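Researcher: Here's my situation. A collaborator sent me these components and asked whether they could plausibly form a single complex. I don't have experimental data yet, so a predicted model of the whole assembly would be a useful starting point for our discussion.
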Amino acid sequence: MDSVANIILYFVVALCIVIFSVLTVTSRRILRAATYLLFVLIGVSVFYFQLGYQFLGAVQIAVYAGGIMVLFVFAILLTHRPDQKTGLLEQHRRTVGISLSVLSCVLLLLALFFMPLIGGESLSASIAAGNDITMHDIGKAFTGTDRFQYLLPFEAVSILLLSCIIGGVVVARKR
Amino acid sequence: MDLEMLWYLVPSVIMFCAGVFGFITRKNTIALLLSLELMLNAADLNFVVFNRYLFPGSMEGMVFTLFAIAIAAAETAIAIAIIINIYRAVGNSDITSAQKMKF
Amino acid sequence: MDITLPILILAIPFAMFLILGIGGVKMPRKLAGSIGILANGALLACCYTVAFTYFFSGDPLFIIDGVRQQYQVFDVTWLAFTDRLVVNIGFLLDPICAMMLVVISTISFMVHLYSWGYMEHEPGFQRYYAFLALFTFSMLGLVVATNIFQMYIFWELVGVSSFLLIGFFYKLPSAVSASKKAFIVTRFADLFMLIGILVLSYYVAQTPADGPLGGASAFNFLMLNSHPTNVLASTLGATFMGGSVLTWAMILIFVGGMGKSAMLPLHIWLPDAMEGPTPVSALIHAATMVVAGVYLVARFFPMYCIVPDSLTFITVVGAITAFYAAVVACAQIDIKRVLAFSTISQIAFMMVSLGCAYDQPIEGVHYSGLGYMAGMFHLFTHAMFKALLFLGAGALIHAVHSNDYTKMGGLRKYMPITHWTFLIGCLAIAGIPPFSGFFSKDEMLTAMYNRDIIWGVWMTIVAGLTAFYMFRIYYLIFWWEENPEYKHDGHKPHDAPWQMSLPLIILAAVSCVAGFIPFGEFVTFNGEPYHIHLEGWVAGTSITVAVLAIALATVMYAKKNPLPSKMRQAMPGLWMAAHKRFYWDEIYMFVTHKIIFGGICRAIAWFDRHIIDGTMDALAAVTNFCSVKIKSFQSGNVQAYVAWYLLGALLLGAITWICLL
């Protein structure tokens, strides 16, 4: 049995996520869309916290909300006037988009509700059972080479980020 | 009343479909990227939720999400560099002005 | 025996071909020519040494108790396809091979020397020498072959070099078409030869490994010619259309020889081959390559004797060809064509002679193998005097710049050397003693009379015709009426330079004395020496006929007179038919163009264009149509890709779900 506060928090955040993600893709002012996305990301990070992944929630806020969103805002400000509305595609393509996304939404929700999910235990019980993940575990997981340890992908990602920095500079510099 | 797995998955589905809708219908490339982030976050959320409810003893879902975030950051940086380049070249950042990759 | 010289005999001309063929373009003419001539001189020395060693050394390898042996200097496995199908390359030394080595190297050397003068101003001089070297190599390889396959390989190489040399003046359309004609006709004949070889290969059993020939390749001449009845039993047992398989195989192999030696239905290429340079005609189309068919029959002679039907076939083909060619030669205007038909006739003479020989004693015949010896003897003497005649004709063409005797006449005053040497050649071919042709022809006629009086009489008539047409052409060139153009100083003909005259003189000298060679001591069908002696009445008859023919020619052509044209008007049909070579070319044209191309090939072409190509076109059209239709998927529109992808994913998901339900 989860606490009532937790359930209320869930509903508030879920509503936020739903509303703001729809607003993100419907708003014609791109800077507003970015702001709505920021709310969605924060909502997701709240879910992470709620699920007991504190580190992940922190990363979500730091990298997404702090890093990527800043990039977005910079890019938007570089390429748009503040009050500029983005253009629209042709009507038939929007129709296609709406119908496809609604169709997939319906199908996925049907699948969710009618497929037998393998039942898990309750959230609070799971967290309380001492399955909490500590920073120590994460640090170990990223610095070892055993089973369920990820030094190699970690290094690969670091190289990816380096090449991404260089690539970003090369692509975007003035010729 | 418990917070069940399904509860988390429903907002995730809606996020994802919103992302799909945005990706197909928006004209601005930055808006496209925003939609992409939505879809990515929906997937991330799923990883974490499945990890928590189905395999509470392990942390693979979370690790995957961490990597996904790192890669998403890299991808966004490059994509924005390209968008700025397109903007420089054609004066706007519309997807319709970058359609040379075809037959 | 040391294998150095035999290897050199093959290596020198091949090396010459490579050197002159690859490096010739960069060489000055003089250098290329002198390399060619010097190398050929070395080759001549090698061949003479080998032949001399073979005939005179008395080595037990070559002669045992006075019987000449066949000796394989070397014989190495070249391609071993299966246990039974093994192709060897080797060097066989026996009387006819040694004789051919002498003939080929001599004529080749003469022609190399002669070409130095004759081809001096022609473009492609180096290429010409390279081709000559290739030909010499192939011809030598052919005569020294130890087995059928080696012979066949070189047989084709000879055909190729003949093709290249006939088409040497490749800017002349006539030369190009002549070379194609020669190649196609001989290749067509070789097809039959190949079939014959394959038939033989199918039926001939492997030689027993413990036998005297120790499991030699089934195509080895030594093996085949030693009458291994156990090996050939199955070929004699199996029959096809009334003849044993061996008969058919040997006749098919002989058809290849008919192609190369221009026997009757396949003779059409040789007169056209005269489009090549004249020294080439002397070397290839008079002395060496065209006698390859004769050589083939001689090489397989013991095999032919197993199946006497094939010998009869050879005799009949030869007799018809000899008469036909002799008649046609009487009505030709081009002097080289006269010589070409004369060559055909003389080769047919040799064929008849070989056909009249037999390796077993015949009742009432003094020496049954005489035809073989005489045919080889005539091959030898004919090579010399026919090369002489061709080279003489070359000198005339060089002087007059035309092949027609109508442009000549009265040349004896201007070209004494050519005149005398040509006369010697004519006397030799006509069979007047003491020139070489008399002796060989007399032996051949004796052999024919021995076999059957019909062949003797028939071929005596041919010999008379030979004398007639040779002296006809001789008188028309050197006597008749002087061409008025010679009065102008610029057109005055003169003898050829020494490079050309020297071979003429040498060959004339050889033609004078070659008849006195005791040929029977060297070349007989079984290696045992035979003492040539003239059959008085045969010699008398043939001399009488020859003299009468020459007298007739003298009456008709020595001075300008209306007799020839009167005779021509008296028999216009015969003259035209002979002049047109009895319409053989027209028959071939009709068969190939009207029947094969027009009838059969048109249907096949229709099928090819409409059915085969149509199927392919339809496939291409369908592919094209589909590509055009689906290419818009590749629109470059990322959003469309996403939409399609999503649709596909949803469909797959839906299908999976439905399946799970």
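Model: Some features of this prediction you could bring to your collaborator: Chain A touches chain B through 87 residues (CB under 8 Å). The mean pLDDT of chain A is 85.
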